[in-house]
Amino acid sequence: MHYLKKIKVLLSLIALIAIVGCNRDEDSVLLKFLGEYTVNDSCGSANTTYTMIIREKDENNNELYLDNFGGYGPTIVATISEQNPDIIKIDTHADNLHIVGEGTINNERDEITFTYQTSNNNISTSCSSIAKK
Question: Which PROSITE patterns does this UniProt record tie to the protein (predicted)?
């Protein structure tokens, strides 16, 4: 009987360690993207630098808010790619612009390279940017 008590205690400790060891942030595919970035952006012939903040919108749907994306001011919603968790997918409207593209985070998790298109009234502009934490 004493042997069974030891097994129960041991199993209880293992379960407790497993529960305590789980950290929501470590498991989140969103965490690596969150933060404030300085962005150097090139759209057509225009080059701009601005600050963008990426924050969590909905972890269950792998959605992020990108505040001031493109330097336009409004917040847009982006989604983590299902095929590659290092890629942000963008397909949204902001200030009468349709924005479509993606961003890829580097291995150090401190830089995102974006390529995207903006379009308004059948006028399209290709853009690229590097966002650094």
Answer: PROKAR_LIPOPROTEIN
